[in-house]
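Retro notes (design track)

What went well: tokenization of the new backbones is finally stable.
What didn't: we kept losing track of which sequence belonged to which structure.
Fix going forward: every design gets posted as structure first, then sequence, in one message. First example under the new rule, 159 residues:
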């Protein structure tokens, strides 16, 4: 299925409160998510005549804010979501990721694969939560939701 170029993100940035790095793995995941997201995504704010769009994602206390801009830098809309529905899956995701990266140098392949499957499952769960929270406000596809969830996790670490 061809994606309508009017309903896509062409720029995504994170408003990070801390410039501290959180390791190569986190930065690597962030870079991959951004690259993949901009290569292919579907993002359609309900009722919008079209973009393409730039997106600023920020985290303030217990709230995620998605500020949408048009290419001419005109503010197109803002969606604020409670972070509460994401907390458990983010916590579990970080724990499994930590175990996964610790296992790589010295654990057998089947252990690493099991941790990776758990990591992917939690990532998928986070994407489904995001799609549910966006429902009726912004249409996104599953791959876009997965990549946005990665960025939410990065913000959560740095927030």
């Amino acid at each position: 299925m061809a994606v309508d170029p009017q309903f896509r993100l062409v720029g995504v940035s994170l408003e990070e409160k801390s410039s501290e790095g959180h390791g190569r793995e986190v930065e690597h995941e962030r870079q991959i998510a951004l690259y993949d997201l901009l290569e292919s995504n579907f993002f359609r704010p309900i009722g919008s005549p079209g973009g393409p769009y730039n997106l600023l994602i920020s985290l303030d206390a217990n709230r995620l804010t998605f500020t949408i801009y048009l290419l001419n830098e005109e503010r197109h809309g803002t969606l604020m979501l409670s972070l509460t529905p994401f907390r458990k899956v983010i916590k579990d995701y970080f724990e499994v990721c930590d175990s996964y990266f610790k296992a790589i140098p010295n654990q057998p392949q089947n252990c690493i694969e099991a941790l990776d499957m758990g990591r992917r499952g939690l990532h998928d769960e986070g994407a489904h939560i995001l799609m549910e929270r966006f429902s009726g406000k912004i249409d996104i596809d599953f791959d876009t939701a997965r990549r946005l969830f990665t960025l939410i996790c990065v913000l959560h670490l740095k927030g």
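Added context from the reviewer: Residues 9-158 form one domain.
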